[in-house]
Design brief:
heterotrimer, A mainly alpha (281), B mainly alpha (324), C alpha/beta (262), A: MetI-like fold, 11 helices, B: mainly alpha, MetI-like fold, two-stranded antiparallel sheet
Chain lengths: 281, 324, 262
C-alpha cells in the first residue's frame, strides 16, 4: 500500500515541481561554497559598492556592507535549511516515537503523552522559543536545532498516534497478533511501513513550520548571529533600507516563501495520494 | 455543554500553569537580572546593589520567588516592571486590549474573506477563478505573516505612503481632535497590520473551507437541493456551507497559537504597542515579571480564543446522530 | 398524444476507459403514464434517472438528448432547466437519510421547493409544506415538520422526500428505488402512497427498481435495462407472461418461485 502511495506521488505534477524546488534548494545549499560568485562575508568596498542595485555583476545586488546578496542567500540557505532540516528530523523522530509509544502502550503512557500534547499545542510556539532563546542568550546553530526541533514534535505525535490506533484495529494486525507476533515486531515490520506516508506528511508540514521559525528568530536578532548569514538575518540587515534597497528584503522573502510553499504543496499532494490509495483499495 | 465548558476551562488553566512554571523556571537560568543591565560597568557599591536586589526580591532562592510570584498571580498582581517603572498589571492593562483589537479584527476579517474565497472557488471549481485563488491562498500560507508585513510596510507604507508605518495614531496633539477623527486615525493605523494578519488567516481558512465544501458537495442532499430547482449559489450557501463550516472553525482554533505568535512579530514590525511589542522590549531589558506576564497572557489569549472556537464549532457541528 | 419526456439516443460515457454507463438509450413517456425501469445493480438505471433532471456529475460525458417540456435537460445553460426541476419534473431518491440536509428542519426543506420557485411568503410556503407532509402520510405533520432528518424513521424520511417532490404538482416524477432502503412493511405502505398520489394527480411516473414485484404492482409499462442498454420495452403483463430477452427472463424467473410474479 505504501509503495503505491509513493508511485501516485511521483506521477503527480505539482508534487514533482515542489520536490524539484526543494531538491534544488538543498543542492544549492550544499554546493554554496563552490557556486557562490563571491565570499559572503567579504566587504570589498563599503563605500563604492554599498547598496548596489541588482546588475550583471551582482545579480541580487549588494548590502550596506558591500557584500554580495546572492552569495549571502546561497550561504544563508546552508544555515537556514540546515537548521530547518535538523530541527525537522529531530521533531519528526521525537513525535513519531512518542506517538507510536502512546498508541501501542495505551493506558497511562497514552494519557501522559496525549495530555502533554493537548497542553503544549495551545502554546504559541514562536513566543516560547523566543523566550527560551532570549533566556540562554545567543545560541549556536546546533542549539537552535535542539530548541526548534524539540518544540515541534506535537503535530507529528498526534498524526502518528491516530494512524497507529487506526491500524492497530485493522484485520491484518489482529491476524498477525493472533499468530503470535510480538508487539514491537509488529510495529517495526507492519505498522511503521504502513504509516510511513503519513509520517512523510508530518515531516513536510514540520519543514514548512520550521523554516519561517528560524527566519523569524534571526529576524528579531535572536537566531543565527552575524557574520554567519541566514535568510532571517539578511532580512534584518535589510529592514533599515526598506525604501532604498528593495533587493535586501525581496530575495530572502522569495527564498523562504518558495521553500515553505513547496513543502506545503508536497504535504498536500501526499495527503491526496494517500486518500486516493485508501479509496482504491 | 456545561461539562464541555468545564473541561475546556480546566484545560485552559492547565496550559497556563504549565506555561507559567516553565517560563519562570527557564528565566532562572538566564544570566543577569535587570540590575545587571542597568548597573554593570557603573561604580555602584556592592552593598547598594544587594539592597536593591533585596527590595525587589531578587536575593531569595528561586523556589521561594516562584511561590511569591505564583501567589501574587492568583491575586491578580503581576509584579513590578523595573524597565517601565510601573506595575506589570498597568502595562498589561494598556497593551492587552491593543493586541485583542489587532487579533480580533484579523480573525473576523480573515474568516469572512477566507470563507468567501472558498465559496467562489467551489462555485467555479476547476476554472480559472479556482486556480487564481488557489495560487493566492497557497502564497498566503507559504509566506510567513512577518514577511508579508515587511513587504506591505515597504511598499504600501514607506514607498507609496498610502498607510502609516508605525504606531497607534498620528503624532501631535491628537487628543484635541474630535472623536470621529481620532477613531478614523486609529483605524487608519490599525488597517495595515490587521490586514496583513487577516491575509494569513484568510489563506488558511480558504484552503480548509474549500476542501470541506468540496467534500460536502459530493453528498446526496446536494443533489436533492439541485433537484428542487435551487440555483448553485443557493445550494452552496443554504446546504453546503452550513454543513462544512464547523470543522473549519475547529481548525482555526488549532491555528490560533501560531496566529498569536505571528501577531507578536507584526506588532514589532508595525510598532503596534500591544503584548508582542511589550514582550520584545521586556526581553531586551531582562524585565522578568513583564516577560512572564507577556508570554502568559499571549498563551491565555490563544487558549481563550481556542476555547471559544471549539464551542462555536460544537454549536454548528452537523446534527448527524442517526436513529437506530 | 405528444410525449411528455423523450429520450433520444442517450449515451453516457465513463471517461473512455471502461464500458459506457448508458449506450444508445431511446424511449418516451406520455402524460399520466407509469413506466418501470427494471435492472440489476450496475445496469445504469440510477444514471438514467439522474440524467432526466440533468443531475449527472459533470465529469461524465453525455451524448444524445433528454427532451422534457421541449427543453433539453442535458444542456448546461442553467436557468430554464433549474426552473423545471422541482416544479415540472421532480425526483425521489433511494436513501432518504443522506438525501436530506442533516442541518435543516424537514419542514423547511419541503417549503424550500416553493421558495425556489418564486414563493416570497415564508409562512405560506411553510403552511403548504405542512399540508403536503400531511398528505404524504406523515402523522402529526405540524410538529414533525420542525424535526431534523435524524429524528425521523426511515419511512417518515421517505415521506418527507415524497412531499418535497410532489409539492408543486409536477408532470413527471422520477422515483429511483424509492423503497429499497426501507423495511418490508414500510415498503408496502410507501408504494401504496406513491400509487395513490400518482393516480389522484394524473402525474406521469418513472419508477426505477431492481425489484420486479415493486414494478409489476405499479407500472403499466416496463423497460428492462441491462449493461447500459434497453433490452426490452413492453406492457408489464406481457413482460411477465413472455419475457423475450434472456436477461429479462432471468429477472422474471428469479421472482416466480417466491410466488410474487403474475
Amino acid at each position: 500500500m505504501a509503495a503505491n502511495t509513493w508511485q501516485r506521488l511521483l506521477a503527480d505534477r505539482p508534487a514533482r515541481i515542489a520536490g524539484g524546488v526543494l531538491s534544488a534548494a538543498a543542492i544549492a545549499a550544499v554546493l554554496a561554497p563552490w557556486i557562490s560568485p563571491y565570499d559572503p562575508t567579504l566587504q570589498p568596498d563599503p563605500v563604492a559598492l554599498r547598496l548596489v542595485a541588482p546588475s550583471w555583476h551582482h545579480l541580487f545586488g549588494t548590502d550596506p556592507f558591500s557584500r554580495d546578496v546572492l552569495s549571502r542567500i546561497l550561504h544563508g540557505a546552508r544555515v537556514s535549511l540546515g537548521v530547518a532540516a535538523g530541527a525537522m528530523l529531530l521533531s519528526v523522530t521525537l513525535g513519531a516515537a512518542l506517538g507510536a509509544l502512546a498508541a501501542v502502550m495505551g493506558g497511562w503512557v497514552d494519557s501522559i503523552v496525549s495530555g502533554l500534547v493537548d497542553v503544549l499545542i495551545a502554546m504559541p510556539r514562536l513566543l516560547v522559543v523566543i523566550a527560551l532563546v532570549a533566556t540562554f542568550g545567543a545560541l549556536s546553530p546546533w542549539w537552535l536545532i535542539v530548541l526548534i526541533g524539540g518544540s515541534g514534535w506535537l503535530t507529528t505525535a498526534r498524526i502518528v498516534r491516530a494512524e497507529f490506533r487506526d491500524h492497530l484495529q485493522r484485520e491484518y494486525v489482529l491476524a498477525a497478533r493472533a499468530l503470535g507476533a510480538s508487539r514491537w515486531r509488529l510495529v517495526w515490520r507492519h505498522l511503521l511501513p504502513a504509516v510511513a506516508p503519513q509520517v512523510a506528511v508530518a515531516a513536510a508540514l514540520a519543514l514548512a513550520a520550521v523554516i519561517p521559525l528560524e527566519a523569524a528568530l534571526s529576524f528579531v536578532g535572536l537566531g543565527i548571529q552575524p557574520p554567519l548569514p541566514s535568510w532571517g538575518n539578511i532580512l534584518l540587515d535589510g529592514t533599515d533600507y526598506l525604501t532604498s534597497a528593495w533587493w535586501l528584503v525581496v530575495f530572502p522573502i522569495a527564498a523562504v516563501t518558495l521553500t515553505v510553499g513547496s513543502a506545503l504543496v508536497l504535504a498536500d499532494r501526499l495527503r491526496t495520494a494517500i486518500a486516493g490509495e485508501e479509496r482504491a483499495r | 455543554m456545561t461539562r464541555r465548558l468545564i473541561a475546556r476551562a480546566l484545560h485552559a488553566a492547565a496550559v497556563c500553569a504549565v506555561v507559567a512554571t516553565s517560563v519562570f523556571a527557564l528565566l532562572q537560568f538566564a544570566p543577569g537580572d535587570p540590575f545587571a543591565t542597568a548597573l554593570d560597568g557603573t561604580d555602584v557599591p556592592p552593598n547598594v546593589r544587594a539592597e536593591w536586589r533585596a527590595r525587589y526580591g531578587f536575593d531569595l532562592p528561586p523556589l521561594e520567588r516562584f511561590a511569591h510570584w505564583g501567589g501574587a498571580l492568583v491575586r491578580g498582581e503581576l509584579g513590578y516592571s523595573a524597565s517601565r517603572h510601573r506595575a506589570v498589571a498597568e502595562v498589561v492593562r494598556d497593551a492587552l486590549p491593543r493586541t485583542l483589537v489587532l487579533v480580533g479584527a484579523a480573525l473576523i476579517l480573515g474568516f469572512a474573506v477566507g470563507v468567501g474565497a472558498a465559496l467562489l472557488q467551489v462555485r467555479h471549481h476547476g476554472r480559472w477563478q479556482d486556480r487564481v485563488l488557489g495560487a493566492l491562498t497557497l502564497g498566503g500560507v507559504a509566506m510567513p505573516e512577518f514577511l508579508v508585513g515587511l513587504l506591505a510596510m515597504t511598499w504600501l507604507g514607506a514607498r507609496w505612503r498610502i498607510f502609516p508605518v508605525a504606531g497607534l495614531g498620528s503624532l501631535g496633539d491628537a487628543t484635541a481632535w474630535p472623536l470621529w477623527e481620532r477613531a478614523a486615525d486609529y483605524l487608519w493605523h490599525l488597517a495595515l497590520p490587521a490586514a496583513v494578519l487577516a491575509l494569513a488567516v484568510a489563506s488558511r481558512v480558504a484552503r480548509h473551507q474549500r476542501a470541506a465544501l468540496l467534500g460536502v458537495m459530493r453528498e446526496d442532499f446536494i443533489r436533492t437541493a439541485r433537484a428542487k430547482g435551487l440555483g448553485e449559489w443557493d445550494v452552496l450557501l443554504r446546504h453546503a456551507l452550513p454543513n462544512a463550516i464547523g470543522p473549519v472553525i475547529a481548525l482555526l482554533g488549532l491555528a490560533l497559537p501560531s496566529l498569536v505568535g505571528g501577531a507578536a512579530l507584526i506588532e514589532r514590525i508595525f510598532g503596534w504597542p500591544g503584548m508582542g511589542l511589550t514582550l520584545f522590549d521586556a526581553l531586551l531589558a531582562r524585565d522578568y515579571p513583564l516577560v512572564l506576564a507577556a508570554v502568559l497572557l499571549a498563551t491565555l489569549v490563544a487558549v481563550v480564543a481556542r476555547t471559544l472556537t471549539d464551542l462555536v464549532a460544537d454549536v454548528v457541528a452537523p446534527r448527524r446522530v442517526p436513529v437506530p | 398524444m405528444t410525449a411528455l419526456l423523450s429520450v433520444e439516443r442517450l449515451h453516457i460515457g465513463s471517461g473512455g476507459r471502461s464500458a459506457p454507463i448508458l449506450d444508445d438509450v431511446s424511449f418516451a413517456v406520455s402524460d399520466g403514464e407509469t413506466v418501470g425501469v427494471l435492472g440489476a445493480s450496475g445496469s445504469g438505471k440510477t444514471s438514467l434517472a439522474l440524467s432526466l433532471l440533468g443531475l449527472l456529475p459533470q465529469s461524465l460525458e453525455t451524448r444524445g438528448r433528454v427532451v422534457f417540456d421541449g427543453y433539453n435537460m442535458l444542456e448546461r445553460a442553467a436557468g430554464a432547466r433549474r426552473n423545471l426541476r422541482g416544479r415540472r419534473i421532480s425526483m425521489v431518491f433511494q436513501e432518504p437519510l443522506t438525501a436530506l440536509n442533516p442541518r435543516q428542519r424537514v419542514g423547511a426543506q419541503v417549503a424550500e421547493v416553493a421558495r425556489a420557485h418564486g414563493e416570497r411568503d415564508a409562512q405560506k410556503a411553510m403552511r403548504g409544506a405542512v399540508d403536503m407532509l400531511h398528505r404524504a402520510g406523515l402523522t402529526d405533520a405540524g410538529t414533525r415538520a420542525l424535526r431534523y432528518p435524524h429524528e425521523l424513521s426511515g419511512g417518515e424520511r421517505q415521506r418527507v422526500l415524497l412531499a418535497m417532490a410532489l409539492l408543486l404538482d409536477p408532470a413527471l416524477l422520477v422515483a429511483d428505488e424509492p423503497t429499497s432502503a426501507l423495511d418490508v412493511t414500510v415498503q408496502a405502505q410507501v408504494l401504496q402512497l406513491l400509487r395513490t398520489l400518482q393516480r389522484e394527480r394524473g402525474m406521469a411516473m418513472l419508477l426505477v427498481s431492481h425489484d420486479l414485484g415493486v414494478i409489476a404492482t405499479t407500472c403499466s409499462r416496463t423497460m428492462v435495462l441491462h449493461d447500459g442498454r434497453v433490452v426490452e420495452d413492453t406492457a408489464t403483463p406481457q413482460l411477465l407472461a413472455a419475457p423475450e430477452h434472456p436477461q429479462a427472463r432471468a429477472l422474471v424467473d428469479a421472482v416466480r418461485p417466491a410466488g410474487r410474479g403474475a
